[in-house]
Design a protein that fits this description.
By secondary structure, the protein is α/β, with parallel strands linked by helices. It contains 14 helices and 16 strands. The protein has a seven-stranded mixed β-sheet, sandwiched between helices. Helix content is 38%, strand content 15%. The structure holds pyridoxal-5'-phosphate (PLP). The site of pyridoxal-5'-phosphate has 15 residues, from α4. Keywords: Cytoplasm, Isomerase, Porphyrin biosynthesis, Pyridoxal phosphate. It comes from Zeimonas arvi.
Length: 426
């Protein structure tokens, strides 16, 4: 019989670490990854037939739940007409029209097959548009695996970045300047020293890759002002937060307009899609109209576009985000009550359908504060929740994801499991 353990052993003989994306290997929590056989609505089932309430949601895309009938129908219909053409199809225009309608600054869209490609191409576009090489990113923000973005702070506040992965040339990393999220002074210092060389500031406006972090009042406003003053482009990486914290992403919540936005996750509804969007005058620097090269064999393929269109049409229904937010609030309040009852330094919060839980007495505001979590306690909590049938992202530095498929009963079951787990780790 197939078990998670037997499948993990088998996988490790042919897949590096048994997985195709590092965090799936459960290294941050220990134990055996669950091999998923099937998912529907708010649930996933592993190969042993055990059911989990799904707060992973494929790391964000599944905002209407797994296997939503309308999404499956759209994908099935599209599949009958062919999987990929490598020539234009009308669904590309239809998904782009929706994105332009939702994000006021987006006049042109270019689709890719992943968020990584979207962020990478946005960088190249910003460099091509400004004719500058340096970029600013933030410690703890994740933008996929492009070389220029796998960079962490070097030593000393003004030092150039150093590669955070082997294989990234130090010569490339020195063009990446690393600042601290929610610390405007750290960005001002970089502009004071290197202003004329900076092509763009790339930021997760509401980070979800150092767990959920919320921008302090004035921080994103300050980035907007610095970029405008120095002729650099402000790029919001909304791959995770777009169509997730609000229909119009973090930029809708904070009321700040970037020069370029990167999208992914929800816009593919579970299929591989990324996108860059922005004003025509910047976007039209890209091939075939401009000199910045960008292309992709499967970009805009009909199956991915169909899944994206069906998902966007479900979430742009009036009241969708209000309902999603209210229900997620109820879950978060229940988790916070459970922590108080158990007397554990634990808390939770959310924005729209994106949430964070922290082994800390107060929600963190910075990467440094996120690092102060009790990791050992998180590991024990994680496995108690998993044993109780609740699947959270297997890392203390990741956000978790709520969907419209989560029922009141699912919320209650999750809170009950957390109450027991928190008491056990107190
Ligand atoms: C997931 C993510 C990416 C990378 O997207 P992939 O589709 O995994 O390549 C980029 N930026 C952010 C903010 C993300 O959350």
């Amino acid at each position: 019989m197939s078990t998670n353990a037997s499948e993990f052993e088998r996988a490790q003989r042919v897949l590096v670490g048994g997985v195709n994306s590092a965090v799936r290997a459960f290294r941050a929590v220990g134990g055996t990854p669950r091999f998923i056989a099937r998912a529907e609505g708010a649930y996933m089932w592993d190969v042993e037939g055990r059911r989990y309430i799904d707060y992973l949601g494929s790391w964000g895309p599944m905002i209407v739940g797994q296997s939503h009938p309308k999404v499956i129908e759209a994908v099935t219909r599209a599949a009958r007409d062919g999987l990929s053409y490598g020539a234009p199809n009308v669904m590309e225009t239809e998904l782009a029209e929706r994105i332009c309608g939702i994000f006021p600054h987006v006049e042109r869209v270019r689709f890719t097959s992943s968020g990584t490609e979207a962020a990478m191409s946005a960088l190249r576009l910003a460099r091509g548009f400004t004719g500058r090489d340096a970029i600013v990113k933030f410690e703890g923000c994740y933008h996929g695996t492009a070389d220029s973005l796998l960079v962490k702070a070097g030593s000393g506040a003004l030092a150039f970045g150093t590669p955070s992965s082997a294989g990234v040339p130090a010569d490339l990393a020195r063009h990446t300047l690393v600042a601290q999220y929610n610390d405007l002074a750290s960005v001002e210092a970089l502009f004071a020293e290197h202003g004329g060389r900076i092509a763009c500031v790339m930021v997760e406006p509401m980070p979800g890759n150092m767990n959920l972090i919320v921008p302090k009042p004035g921080f994103l406003e300050g980035l907007r002002e610095l970029c405008t003053r120095h002729g650099a482009l402000l790029i919001f990486d909304e791959v995770m937060s777009g169509f997730r914290v609000a229909l119009g992403g973090a930029q809708e919540l904070v009321g700040i307009t970037p020069d370029l936005s990167a999208f992914g996750k929800v816009i593919g509804g579970g299929m591989p899609v990324g996108a860059i969007g922005g004003p025509a005058k910047v976007m039209e620097m890209m091939a075939p109209l401009g000199t910045v090269y960008q292309a992709g064999t499967l970009s805009g393929n009909p199956i991915a576009m169909a899944a994206g269109i069906a998902t966007i049409d479900l979430i742009r229904e009036p009241g969708f985000f209000e309902r999603l937010g209210e229900r997620c609030s109820r879950l978060v309040a229940g988790l916070n009550d459970a922590a108080r009852e158990a007397g554990v330094a634990f808390c939770a919060r959310h924005r729209g359908g994106m949430a964070g839980l922290y082994m800390l007495p107060q929600p963190p505001a910075s990467f440094a504060e996120v690092q102060r979590q009790d990791v050992d306690r998180f590991k024990r909590f994680y496995h108690l929740m998993l044993d109780a049938g609740v699947y959270l992202p297997p890392s203390p530095v990741e956000a978790f994801f709520f969907s419209s498929a989560h029922s009141d009963a699912d919320i209650d079951a999750t809170i009950a499991a957390a109450r027991d787990a928190l008491k056990a780790v107190a």
